[in-house]
Amino acid sequence: MAAETGTPTTLTLKSNDDELFSVAESAAILSVTIRNMVEDGCAGGVIPLDNVDGKTLASVITYMNGISAIPADEEKKKSYRDKFLSDKDFETLADMVLAANYLNMSCLMDAVSAKIAQVMEKKSVGWVRRKFGIENDYTPEEEAAVKEEHKWTFEGVETDDDN
Amino acid sequence: MPDSEINFSYSNVVIPEEITEEILCYLPVNSLLRFKCVSKRWRSFISSEYFTKRHLSKSHSDKKDNGNKFIFSFKGKQNSLTTRFLSVGSSFSLDEDEPIVTTSLDIQIRPRSEIQVVESCNGLVLVENIYTGHLICWNPSTRKTKHIEKPFGFGFGCVEEEGGYGFGYNELTDEYKVVRVRYKEYYETRTHAHMYSSKAGSWKEIEDLDKHLAGRPGKFVNGRPHWLIFGRSPDWEIVALDLVEEKYETVDWPVCFPKVNMFPPYLENTGGYLTLMDCNSYANAMSVWVMTQYGAPESWTKIWTFPNSFNLPIEHVCRSPTPPLCLKRNGDVVVALGSVIVAYNGENLLRWSQVDKFDRFIGSISYVESLVSPFGSDEILVSPASWMMTI
């Protein structure tokens, strides 16, 4: 075994609201976007991440550190991801899925997408429209007809509390 | 969403459609059908063939673990010509101590009749009306059905007695195929075979299978239906039909499989794996062999010898040979003993639950949830109430 070569390389990441974060390169390169920058030699100074705000970046870094500390054990990684996402609300998850997409972190992207789906699963149509900012372009008659076609899927839907 | 220019937005954040699409892939079919009401765009996207295929491939990649759902069928009340279906799932995992959820399924069929499940493929379930021989392709998740006329010259049909069906999907041509193999005459070993194509919407005759079929429905694994063939005992064979070439091929038999004495083995599909069950020692136990890597004869592995009945604190546990419903990645087996569903790790009974107290149990089969339309968009329109098969 080779001796440790001093301190591990640390990268500095900057969020779009100008917060600075230090993170071990070995954890940060879970992001393919960051890894490409490191490989291209663009990671010397501060790495600006223009599409991620400080709050979300802090959370993503917590995830990077947490998941890279787990040895190659898919079961343990999965249970870490489940726990990491368990208490997040829809808005936080939405920020995170965008960050994961921008940073090109497929494992986080898949986990957050699945988690959002789990949150949505029993929600009403109105809840989905609000959270995804979608305008209802059906006439009342058209909407009633579509609903009638799949009537049974409206059983057991949660009442909206917007959480 | 390929032709998209619109972005969804909420508060200050914009969720692009490509990410929405990722999220929708993880939703169960029930939620997706409800969300067709969100907007016209969501409706056409969720209904699209593109999304149907993406969603299906996501279900398939999860299915080895807990993407499977199960259908249990029960006979109707005495003298009633109906079959009742219950869907169970979508997971039967040990991590969850929650009670398992069952949903009663309606299948729209005319006339009312007793029907039996043949096989499932991509979320479609092929069922047969055992009195008329008619076939129905059914998606239990979307509740759509399509009736298939029986091939010319077919009289009263019964899967168990006369031959065997096969049901499968040909990815190359994007076609679903139903194969009907039947003896020409009762004492003949030659069979004649017909194949139905979802694209053509009709039957055609295909090459005869010059073998003696064990007479059970074919099992769809790795893109082909497979049948068990009676050779001269113990020389049993598995024959697969290549749906592209329309040729029969023999699949290698496990070298170490016990010699067949009295009871024929069962050929099964355990959540996508070709499976053989040895029932000869079935007074005490039953061994289950799985081809863990399709096409590799050396990959036949005896995964379990499991007792036919566990010491369950309930009466009337089914004691006949029962194939596993699914094999989990960690090696656990889920098996239905009548209407009791059991998870077993080879040594210990991990969990069990009684799906239903209804005792006229017919059978169980596993399927994946999908949006796949039964054989294209050409569904029959059924009027409500009178055609519903509920009890």
Which tags fit this structure?
heterodimer, A: mainly alpha, 2 domains, 3-stranded mixed sheet, 53% helix, B: 391 residues, mainly beta, Neuraminidase, 5-stranded antiparallel sheet, 12% helix, 39% strand, disordered N terminus, disordered C terminus, cullin family protein binding (chain A), SKP1-like (chain A)
Structure description:
- The complex is a heterodimer of chains A (163) and B (391).
- Chain A has 2 domains: 111 residues, Potassium Channel Kv1.1, Chain A (2-Layer Sandwich), CATH 3.30.710.10; 30 residues, no CATH class.
- The radius of gyration of chain A is 20 Å and the shape is elongated.
- By secondary structure, chain A is mainly alpha-helical.
- The model of chain A has no long low-confidence stretch (mean pLDDT 89).
- Chain A has a 3-stranded mixed sheet with strand order 2-1-3.
- The N terminus and C terminus of chain B are likely disordered.
- Chain B has 5 helices and 27 strands.
- With 391 residues, chain B is mainly beta.
How would you summarize this macromolecular structure in one to three sentences?
With 163 residues, chain A is mostly helical. Helices cover 53% and strands 8% of the residues of chain A.
CATH topology of the largest domain in chain A: Potassium Channel Kv1.1, Chain A
**Overall residue-averaged pLDDT value of chain B:** 75
Q: Return the CATH class of the largest domain in chain B.
A: Mainly Beta
Order of helices and strands of chain A: EEHHEHHHHHH
Largest interface: A-B, 36 and 29 residues
The total domain count of chain B is 2
The proportion of residues forming helix of chain A, as a percent range, comes to 40-55%
Shape of chain A: elongated
Count of individual beta strands of chain A = 3
Structure class of chain B: mainly beta
Provide the fold topology.
The complex is a heterodimer of chains A (163) and B (391).
Chain A: E1 10-14, E2 20-24, H1 25-28, H2 32-39, E3 46-48, H3 54-68, H4 74-85, H5 90-103, H6 106-120, H7 125-132, H8 140-149
Parallel strand pairs in A: 1-3
Antiparallel strand pairs in A: 1-2
Helix pairs in contact in A: 3-5, 5-6
Chain B: E1 8-10, E2 13-15, H1 17-25, H2 29-34, H3 40-47, H4 49-67, E3 68-75, E4 83-88, E5 102-105, E6 115-121, E7 124-129, E8 135-139, E9 144-148, H5 159-162, E10 163-170, E11 175-183, E12 191-197, E13 202-206, E14 212-213, E15 219-221, E16 224-230, E17 237-242, E18 247-251, E19 266-270, E20 273-278, E21 285-291, E22 300-307, E23 324-327, E24 333-337, E25 340-344, E26 349-354, E27 361-368
Antiparallel strand pairs in B: 1-2, 3-4, 3-27, 4-5, 6-7, 7-8, 8-9, 10-11, 11-12, 12-13, 14-16, 15-16, 16-17, 17-18, 19-20, 20-21, 21-22, 23-24, 24-25, 25-26
